[in-house]
Amino acid sequence: MKDTFKREDRTYYVCDERLAAFKALTPAQRLAWVEQMAAFLRKAAIARSHQQLAQPTHIKTT
Fold first, then answer.
1. pLDDT confidence band for 3 (50 / 70 / 90)
2. How far apart are CA 54 and CA 62, in angstroms?
3. Buried b (16+ CB within 10 A) or exposed e, 31-52
């Protein structure tokens, strides 16, 4: 199934408090956060892929 939106058209809202909290992190903490988010996104992509593979496909017979 194809996405019905362009990935580059996504927008996000981040409140000032969240930005301030991220700014307060040390560089090492920021890097750890980025690495944790990347791992989470990889796992989500794998789960989505497995879910799509598990869905039955429609087979046309003639």
1. low
2. 24
3. eeeeeeeeeeeeeeeeeeeeee
Give 25's contacts (C-beta < 8 A, 6+ positions apart): 33
What is the number of H-type helices and E-type strands within the chain?
A: 2, 0
Q: Give per-residue pLDDT as tens, 6-35.
A: 877 878 899 999 999 999 999 999 999 999
Identify the three-state secondary structure at position 53.
Answer: helix
Phi-psi region of 6 (alpha: psi -120 to 50; beta: other; left: phi over 0): beta
Structure tokens at 53: 């593979």
